[in-house]
Amino acid sequence: MPQDPSLIYLDYSATTPVDERVLQAMLPWLSERFGNPASRSHAWGWDAEEAVERARGQVAGLIHADPREIVWTSGATESDNLAIKGAAHFHAGRGRHIVTVRTEHKAVLDPCLELERQGFDITWLDVDANGLVDPAALAAVLRPDTILVSAMLVNNEIGVVQDIAALAALCRERGILFHTDAAQATGKLPIDVRALGVDLMSLSAHKTYGPKGVGALYVRRKPRVRLEAQIHGGGHERGLRSGTLPTHQIVGMGEAFALAGELMDAEIPRIWALRDRLWDGLRDLPDVYLNGDPDRRVAHTLNISVAHVEGEALLMSVPELAVSSGSACTSASLEPSHVLRALGRSDTLAHSSLRLTLGRYTTRDEVDRAVRLLRAQIGRLRELSPLWEMRQQGTLGAWVEQCR
Amino acid sequence: MPVTGPSYGPQVLDHYLHPRNVGSFDAGDPRVGTALVGSPELGQILKLQIRLEGATIESACFRAFGSGEAIAAGSLATEWLRGRDLDQALAIGSQDIVQALGLAPDKLHCALLAQDAIRAAVADYTDKHSVPEAHHGNHADTTGR
């Protein structure tokens, strides 16, 4: 099915294919070079260890970190758990207050909820209508017992870029640890951990043309950030994350991040142009809205609300198109996107959202076909919609008011 | 191997791609009963109308905002309502709709939406034809244009 040329993949924020160059780099480490990087006593081990350390340098290079600051994990979710729970548990003696943002990924929100159950006090920061955190709002909630702030660099649903440097500076001057989830950021904008001033950064391979099942956590060395390990058993990764290192996955992540660094300068403007073309193809329709800040964003994400049409229904009508909806029922929960709700979007607009994300292999032809498919189905579904009928009759506003 | 692929069956897809009886009747017509159920908060809204000829529903129509299953449930309801009297209409239950469309358990709410709409449309029609002095419940929250 994925070979079918009529299918259009515009869901790169969900995952990306492994780049062919990455795949080729990974393969030997599954067969003839199969050694355990922790085997210090023979050539197979030394070979694998060298590969792991080379990849550590490649991952560190993309974010301008020292290789010794990279801890391998199974992915960004584990990195978020290690950063947040690890910091909270280690520093609980200093305080039990943690701050995060309502638009974070569930991999940050759920560990915070778990800490809340354990007796930590969590502040959930609001964002403005464009999805951005006001640094003054963060400053206002920081307390003497605040030990950690977590705010993502690039939002997975709407693609806005948070002003992490400003937020982290507020924490640095108060001795509060700052964690950022950068799973959606690598390869989409230049990243420099020192310029951002963060202590902890979560990274994922599979959002950046690497394999699934591997990620990393940047843990700053100077001054050293202390964490409590969440997985025990063998003391790998300087005790921070036990478990045999998956050499092939790690080599893949390293290669993917090295490629991202090389390709970024050419790739970003190309994807900006395609994304603009996609938006230009849809924005003239009545009652179609862009979600998230129009300027402070990465090139790759277009999140729109197509009013009067439910997002999931729209997806069902374009089976050729692989995109995500923030509407109810696509996920396990019946709630519409918590991100769009945090932006203050109305219930119907949150239920009417569509996330189109572009990537390395997106073509102009695919964008044009997606526009044609979407326009046709938006028209058809609006003819079916009682909201559209009320809008045409001028009674929609009064009815929505009455529903409150 | 677990079953993979779309969570909706062919019956849903058929109604969704070829919805029956899309449209509107004049809500002011005394022969018409109108329902507007669901809410923006839930992300599903169903407008269902019945038109009677004597004691029989001679035609029904709908519009829906919601998932494909909600649209299919509205479409199916309009087919089933035609030719029934009001008591027979009220006998249509959400489980009948679940079975006919092969709805997944997490889409039960779409069938309930259609059942609510049928009951509200019948209630609206009945209210129009009740003795003016008699006091009936206020259906303003479930009926509309």
Structure description:
The two termini of chain A are 44 Å apart. Chain A is 40% helix and 13% strand. In chain A, strand 3, helix 4 and strand 4 form a beta-alpha-beta unit. Chain A has 14 helices and 13 strands. Chain A has 404 residues and is an alpha/beta fold. A 7-stranded mixed beta sheet of chain A has the order 2-8-7-6-5-3-4, sandwiched between helices. A 4-stranded antiparallel beta sheet of chain A has the order 9-10-13-12. A two-stranded parallel ribbon of chain A has the order 1-11. Chain B has one domain: Sufe protein. Chain: A (Alpha-Beta Complex), CATH 3.90.1010.10. Chain B contains 5 helices and 3 strands; from the N terminus they run αβββαααα. Chain B has a 3-stranded antiparallel beta sheet, with helices on one face. In chain B, strand 1 and strand 2 form a beta hairpin. In chain B, helix 1 packs across helix 2 and helix 2 crosses helix 5. The C terminus of chain B is likely disordered. The interface between A and B is medium-sized, with 31 and 32 residues.
